[in-house]
Amino acid sequence: MTRSIRWRLVLAGALAIAAALALSGMGLAMLFERHGERVAVADLRARALALAAMVEPQADGGARLRPPPEDPLYSQPFSGHYWQVTLGEETRRSRSLWDYTLPAEAPAPPPGQTRVRTLPGPRGEALLAVEQGLSVGRGDRPVPLRIIVAENRDDLELARRGFLGDLLPYLALLGAALMGASWLQIRIGLQPLARVGERVAGLVSGGRPRIGQDLPAEVVPLASQIDRLLDARDEELARARQRAANLAHGFKTPLQALLGDAAQLRARGEEEIARSIETVATDMRRHVDRELARARIQSGRNAAGAEPGPIAAKLIGVLRRTPLGAEIDWQLDAAPGLRARIDPDDLTEALGALLENAMRHARDTVRVRVRPEAGAIRIAISDDGPGVPEAHLAGLTRRGLSLDPSGEGQGIGLAVVADIVDAAQGALALRNTHPGFQAELRFEALSPDPASPSPDPS
User: Fold this and answer.
1) Does residue 230 or residue 396 have the better pLDDT?
2) What pLDDT, in 10s, does the model give residues 86-117?
3) What is the spatial distance between Cα 23 and Cα 262, in angstroms, rounded to a whole number?
4) Residue range 430-457: average pLDDT?
5) Which residues form the Histidine kinase domain (predicted)?
6) CA atoms of 280 and 437, how far apart (whole Å)
7) Is the dihedral of CA 123, 126, 128, 131 positive or negative?
8) Which residues are CB-neighbours of 183 under 8 A, at least 6 positions away?
């Protein structure tokens, strides 16, 4: 998971969404608390001004306190709602305070002004209190009026908790919606990378020569670098094949001259020296022929595909015209329209070597069968000859091993076939069939070509 871009983005998005929702919840709770306190303060101020109606002016310019208005909210002891009015030296309290007096050590606010405070209640609880300062009377000695109206802060806390209780389900629903949107955004955003992966797979399977430039702008530089790397690789492989071919061709002429010198030595009676030179020269010629064959092998990664049926039919038609091939009963059973992931020239060379081996060792019959099998194409070439000694079966593809009783084989045919199969990422299996011998090739199947001709067994 730690190496997945998708899961990294999902995890980062989830953490960001969770943090944003947590901060939003805290911020909304704080705003709700402040709003609730402002509403409570406004209500307490209105109640304080209403309590100012308890003041009754006197004819002598003084004032006295009337009996308080009846209010069940302030009549129940310790109800959480309290008031206290002080006019000069006279103080009256709501019944809800019972025998408790709200602290008034701090100076009263100036006349006409209010102060919001937190005071201890009769049970030690925190109270939200509003103090209103007024002045009653005329003349030089007005009577100060101090009104305190308070309510339990627990009511505000309960309101805040209720708000959070209602808010959390909506935040959870919003978080789920945001996570779904984030997942969809990541999925859509990473689709170009999936397309690049599909095109790289197409390069491996031979379905595409290059990634191409028809991609989103963000991944075009990556695709361009890969395409340039592939171009450089193909150029280097082409140069390497050319150098190998040039080197092999350069050796062929001196080796042929060396064999001619060996023949002259034999004519002079130097049989042992001539045989030694011929052995060394023949072995070197096998090396040269093998490298020439390998230089012609394509990688098969970008091959358009080869049709085994028509290629086998064409090769059989050529071998039938040889004296040995004319005596063989050739049997071709190839399903039409099959295409293998291999260069057509490479498949022609591989099938040619296998068919020629089968022709040399067969008594009467050579069978070729081409069939699809689980996403692959199976090509089986069988003969009814004596087969191969079991001791030599595992080393048939080793360079220089020739089991041709006529002595004409150079021992590189099966080795070249093995190189071709490896380059095409296929498989080669050799087995005795008692009687006879079978060589089986397996290549990755490509989509059929609708314009491909049917195999002609003639």
Assistant:
1) 230
2) 988 888 999 999 889 998 888 888 888 999 99
3) 95
4) 75
5) 246-447
6) 31
7) positive
8) 10
**Nearest C-alpha neighbor of 368 from the set 232, 195, 376, 357:** 357
Alpha helix ranges (H) inside 268-387: 271-296, 308-319, 344-361
* Number of other CB atoms surrounding residue 245 within 10 Å: 16
* DSSP-assigned letters across all residues of 152-187: EHHHHHHHHHHHHHHHHHHHHHHHHHHHHHHHHHHH
The span from the CA of 64 to the CA of 290, in Å, is 127
Nearest 5°: CA angle at 441, between 437 and 442? 145
Q: How many CA atoms lie within 13 A of 349 on its CB side?
A: 23
Half-sphere exposure of 197 (CA within 13 A, CB side): 5
d(CA 263, CA 281): 12
The alpha carbons of the chain give a radius of gyration, in whole angstroms, of: 51
Buried b (16+ CB within 10 A) or exposed e, 201-229: ebbeebbbebbeeebeeeebeebeebbee
**Quick check: 2 pLDDT over 80?**
no
Please report, in angstroms and rounded to a whole number, the separation of the first and last CA atoms in the chain: 59
- For 146, residues 6+ apart whose C-beta sits below 8 A from its C-beta are 85, 86, 87, 104, 108, 131, 132, 133, 134
| Cα–Cα separations (whole angstroms), residue 456 to 211, 359, 372 | 37, 19, 18
Q: Which of 303, 298, 297, 299 is nearest to 208 (CA)?
A: 303
Percent of the chain beyond pLDDT 90? Answer: 31
Task: Assess contact for 49 and 58: CB atoms under 8 A.
Answer: no
**Three-state DSSP state, 444:** strand
